[in-house]
Amino acid sequence: MRGIAERPKIKVVSIAGTRPEIIKIAPVILELRRRSLAFEQQLWLSDQHRDMIAPYLRLFELQPDHVFTAISHSSLNHLFAAFLPQLEALLTEHHPDVVLVVGDTLTATVGALAAFNLQIPVGHVEAGLRSFDLAHPFPEEGYRRIISSVASLHFAPSARARQQLVRAGAPARRIILSGNTVIDAVLWVASQDLSPYIQTLPGALQQLIALPQERADRSDTQRRLVLVTAHRRENWGEPLANVTGAVRDLAIEFGDRVAFVFAMHVNPTLQQAIRAVLEGLANVQLVPPLEYPQLVASLRAADIVLTDSGGLQEEAPALGKPVLVMRTVTERPEPLEAGVAELVGTDRERIRQRVRALLTDDEEYRKMARAIFPYGDGHAAQLVVDRLALLPD
Question: So which residues are the catalytic ones?
Fold first, then answer.
């Protein structure tokens, strides 16, 4: 019997293009590197988030082997039309044994379809999430269904995700209950010395997050911190106005007893809408998109996370932070069921009520301020690569 060094290496191409994809695929790439006798791996990037991903590549010491680009980012269809032929050419030239895509982005979808059309197996990391509402989140719910329909291997982050894939017709033997690689990433980053990253932030924000504190036993003199993010397409316009209005109301009500850090999306229209309502409030820090170590440091220091992000619904519970989700439905119900997250939608009064309750009722707060791990314990990448080692099965 030939040893592992004598076997042809399994060629793995990982395709990504947004910050969340890089965070989630990085642990897999690092695990593939550790098993370099068995695997040959490449990272191909789109420029979907071209101005935002460089710090994430540096953090995980990743270098793209190929980059596919679009002249115009004016619409999702323009991106799709630009990326597909470039990917077809790359895949035809390199013909990997498997293509890995992550989650529910346009880059992941076009990567999966390009590979499928060339009969190259697709491995879907973070497979099986469902909101069962194509409008929420949009367009991600549609994208993840498309990817599931063409994937050969489904790496499910939770038991519920696995069950949903089975119900959708995916062969059980092709579904791997791996957990979510984002937990690998957040736990690793949280264990690092984050002070060099914190020192690059504005001075007022440095003071807020420099020393993570245990919040379960809070004193009345301790300043509380609420971390806010809002960027989902379905929340643009009036919903975002409700969110910023609620934050303004709370900032005025609590004054210097509570600080609000609003990490804004790179989109200038969204930033303008946020600044128009919140700029000038002494206890509101408006900051551009945070690098991942800065985000993790902010999470560690926060009392409450108020967000419409999918990833933060996974990361914050792993760090024991209550999450108020500004969406009407979520494809990540596990934290809701555990009582550490709650759907509050984008109703201005509802947001005010729930943030106020967590800031003023210690018993209510303690119920939600618990670390839970429905998406794995930080070893998802190992399980993903274990299954890839069995290819071509």
Answer: 104, 126, 140, 231, 233, 265
